[in-house]
Each structure stands twice: as C-alpha cells, then as structure tokens.
Amino acid sequence: MSRVLLFTGKGGVGKTTAAAATATLAARSGRKTLVVSTDTAHSLADALGAAAGDEPTEVSPGLYLHQVDTQKALELQWGDLRDYARGLFTELGLDEVTAEEITVLPGAEELIALLELRDQARSGRWDVIVIDCAPTAETLRLLALPEALDWHVNRLLPVGRRLLRTFSPLVRRVAQVSVPEEHVIGAGERLHRGLMEVRELLTGPDASVRLVLTPEAVVLAEARRTLTSLSLYGYRVDAVIANRVFPAGGADPWRQRWVAAQATHLAEVERSFAPLPIHTVPYLDAEPVGPAALAQVAETMYGETDPFAPPAGDPPLRITPEGELILALPLAEKSEVDLARKGDELIVNAGSYRRVLALPAALARRSVRGAVLRDGFLRVRFQTGGPDD
Ligand SMILES: Nc1ncnc2c1ncn2[C@@H]1O[C@H](COP(=O)(O)OP(=O)(O)OP(=O)(O)O)[C@@H](O)[C@H]1O
Ligand SMILES: [Mg+2]
Fold it and tell me: pTM of the prediction?
C-alpha cells in the first residue's frame, strides 16, 4: 500500500510548498513518489520548477508529478453523466450546459482529480502519494457526501433516483424531470462507488492529513475548526506545519513586533494541537522553488522525525468491543456538538459540520443510552442486547 499524505490549510499559507517539499524528500530517500494537485492552478508545477503533463511525469529522479486534466477526465469517465445533466437542463428550459460549466459545480474538479488518484493508488506503483489539497479541506468534507447517501442509495431509493442523489444536490433538485437511462444509472453508481473508494483510501490506515498554517490569529482559528471537522469526517491528522515563522534576532522594531506576535500564536498552536507534532518552517529570504530549495525546506520542517512513518494511534472513529462508539472531536466545544439518531444512522453535528454515520450492523438495532464529550472525544453508549430485551 502507498503511504498517502494530504496537505490542507487556509489559502496561501504554504500547502503547495509543504506538499512539494515532502514529495521531494520522499523521492530523495529512494521512495517512488507521486505528487498530485486537486487544484487547477498549476502552482505545484511552478513550485517544483517543472512542467506537468496530464499523465504522471518524472520531474526529478523518482518524483512524478500528476496534474489532472479535469476536463479530459470528465469527458472520458463521466461523459454519460454529463450528457444526462445537460439534457435535464435543456428540458428545464435552461441554456445548454457545457462540460466546462458542470465542472464549476462546487468541488467537482477536486473530486474528479481524487477519482483519478484512486486509480493511481490502486496501481501499486507508488511508495508515497502526496496530495496538495484545496484550501480548508473543503473537498475532503465533500467526500463525506457519498457516505451520507450510501444508505439511501443502497436501500431506500428506486434505482432511477440513485444517480441523482449521488451526482450533486443541483441535479437532485430537478430529479422529477427526467428518468435517467440505464447506462447513465450505471455511470452514476460507478461515480458513487468511486467516491466511496476515494474516501476509504483517504481515511484508511495508510493515509493522514497535515494541517498547514502560519502563526496568525485568523489562520489559527480556521485551522482549529478544520482539525475538528476533519476528525468528524474520519480523517487522521498527524502533524501541523507552522510555516513562515520569522527568525528571531535583528534590531529592527518592525521585525521584533512580528517575532513577538508570532511567538504568542505559536504558543497557542502548541496548546491547541498537542499532542500532534508541530513542524516549523522559517520565513525564507526567497520563495522556495525547485528541488534543491524544497529539499532544504523538508529537512528543516521534519528535522529528525520520519515523515513517512505510518500514522500512529487510533483512527478518529472506532467502536470498542463493549459496543461504545468513540469519535475524536478535538477542540470541539460541548455547546456546539449534538447528536441525533435516525433509523440506522447516527447524525453528529459539530459547529456547522454534520456527519451522517451509517451504524454498523452490531449497533444499528440498539438504541442510544447516553453520550458524553470529554477530552476531545465523543463517546456514545448503546443499549446492550437488542431492542426487545
Ligand atoms: N517559508 C516560506 N518562506 C518564503 N516563502 C514561502 C514560504 N512558504 C511558502 N512561500 C511562498 O509563498 C507563496 C504561497 O505558498 P504556497 O503556494 O505554497 O501556498 P498555498 O497554501 O499552496 O496557496 P494556495 O491556497 O493559493 O494554494 C509561494 O510563492 C511560496 O513560494
Ligand atoms: Mg497551493
């Protein structure tokens, strides 16, 4: 299995740089490495100082860059769905929708890139796969959508509706208009399965997310929320990268004020994210572009630690042999967490994020006895024995 590393964080904090640096280090240590971007801007290629192809291209020894051409992937893989959606829009009297417009649906491009990535992961070709994600993990949260829909897709909805439920909320709204044909349903199911598999890969035991931030109040506040939501959706976060840290020293008052402000925020970063390791990268005197500069960044960033070790500790969601469901919700406040039970599903809200969790068969028929949020863990206890006891 490939070790999968995802990098996310607020816009502009250094996600692409951290991803490119980590990938460079992986390749230099003899691991066959693929670095992928879910971002349509070509900044990953720019950071690596290389040109990207739409197939994995070797940009330095052992390091392959894949810039997914989402338009092409959409045409090739999901043409049936596109044609169907286009037909629906026409029926509704809307102007004909082009493939370009469909990919404008929120997150669609990132999801397509992730679907392509799944094929790479399956190929068994890579020791390490590094993913430069969209800001603030939006896409990763989007991947929870198929999980939420899975139960309905499999058991509730008549076949014709499955696709519509899966493909996008936009198409769902017009579900009554046209019944999709067989091949379209097939494509819809394939998409649904594909998204589920991507999610399994990214939440699996060989994958982890690294949260990139800069020591600034606004960035930190967002990183804290991202940590909670990633955990809610089942992603492991295994490190925080504090980028653009001003080196102390120098008599310039402007710099001293920045150093002091950052020191305060860094202390807060340590408090917020403990026990996660915090890797710091100094504010360099030039943009770290190209393999040599990136390798240097990676060495500073990881120091003596092994960035490619398997993620340690428990996954965010687990069920104990006693039938207690434990979900890590680091940094979540009691007042913003609540819980509801609906049939076989447990609905967990944390702030503005919601996860619809399909309960495993062992718990699905038991009622909830109680739940507590303590030390960053939500513990849900279920009635022992069946409902008839
Ligand atoms: N430690 C650093 N010192 C100096 N420059 C840096 C450092 N880290 C990143 N940069 C530069 O800052 C800019 C933004 O970094 P980067 O592209 O990695 O951020 P990003 O989080 O990927 O941004 P986006 O949200 O737009 O994708 C780039 O020009 C990069 O070279
Ligand atoms: Mg970027």
Answer: 0.87
